[in-house]
Amino acid sequence: MDNGLKPLHNIPINGNPYTGTHTYKYAIKLYFAFLAEEFKEKETFGNIFMEEAFKAYLPKNGVEKSVSNYLNYIKNVDRLFEYKLFPIIKEIYESQNFEALNRLREQGDDYLAETFKGLKNLKDYRSGFKKYLYFIEDSIADVAEAAPDTIDKIVNDLVDEEIDEVTTEIKDSYSHEDIRKNFFFRLISQNRFNQKSDFYFPIRFIQQYFYKTNDKEYFNNIINKQIDGIRFFYDKNSDEFKHLKELKISEDGKLLINDKVVFSEDFKNNSTYVPFEVTKLSDIAIDHIKPMDTILSELKKADYCELEKITAALNKGLHSRTYTKLAARGTKLSNSDFINSIDKGELKREFEDIVNRMQLQLMHKKHNSDKRNKVK
């Protein structure tokens, strides 16, 4: 019986009668493009995950008169992500995976900035995207303490698959400021909860503290100075980030800074330096030459009273101290009573002392992983 419908592989798309030779995934994508063109239908937005809660969140967080605009911004971002954003967010929320959320925030914003450069309202879309992810972060923090310690592998797989896919078209040239913004976010996302030390280094809470106590410029200056000192290596010499003018990723995977090939230390090859082989920014890691866990362990019994106070508050009432629960507790500690109990001058001293002990370098993420495994 002929119902008028053709098998997927028999439908010519854009004049191509051999669509069936493509992978099913690609063929399906082409088929939906064919339907949109054939029936001239407008694209429809996906449903915002936790929309009502997000609408209630916005007026309490600096958005009072433009709630509907922010809803449209995030819907447009979902459209630019080919309607994959909200399924990813749902998986991240249900697994309470702060690390995956940070990766989505970093790689997703890079994708928007580079792929849709020149798009009208892009600045607004990126603002809505960031505000929505901060809302998700706060929402995860509200429930994380009661959550199981395990994290579904499916979330990491999903984020790896979807975000890697949308970033493959990223342009290969970045300005000094592009990279600075990227590195700034990475450094303020690296909480350190070393159980062998007398105190943690919860950088996200420290950032929130200085931002809420009108010392945003102070905090940003410390992090930017740290970024300026990040080292990278050429074939015969090295340089620092403050001299970086432009970073490029070539078609054959070479990393170039100021038009010179950059090298990474390969721990599995007798620590020899080999050219980077990358396809995207996230292949480039910021490595601590001396591991942070080592730095914090060496400071055991040292006088860091404010970080010890913050650590005690993070640990209070937690029977199992997982990264997820400690990161969530750090977000929830940012209330006025606890903020007011901190000696700002002392915390500045402790914060600067630890930052000054850090030495950073660029390394391929695989080599960075090999180094961490070797140190363990």
Q: What share of residues are in beta strands?
A: 5-15%
Strand ordering within the main sheet: 1-4-5-6
> What Rg do the Cα atoms give?
23 Å
Count every helix, treating DSSP H or I runs of 4 or more residues as helices: 16
Distance between the termini: 66 Å
Tally of structural domains: 2
Give the % helix: 40-55%
Report the mean per-residue pLDDT as an integer.
77
Low-confidence stretches: 1-15, 17-22, 35-44, 145-171
Structural class by secondary-structure content: alpha+beta
The global form is globular
Total strands: the figure is 10
State the order of secondary-structure elements, H for helix, E for strand: HHHHHHHEHHHEEEEEEEEHHHHHEH
Main sheet: strands, sense, barrel: 4 strands, antiparallel
Report what the structure shows.
The chain has 376 residues and is an alpha+beta fold. It has 2 domains: 101 residues, no CATH class; 208 residues, no CATH class. Helix content is 53%, strand content 10%. Strands 1-4-5-6 form a 4-stranded antiparallel beta sheet. A two-stranded antiparallel ribbon has the order 2-3. A hairpin with a 2-residue loop joins strand 5 and strand 6. Helix 3 packs across helix 6. The chain starts with 23 loop residues before the first helix and ends with a helix. The relative contact order is 0.10. The N terminus is likely disordered.
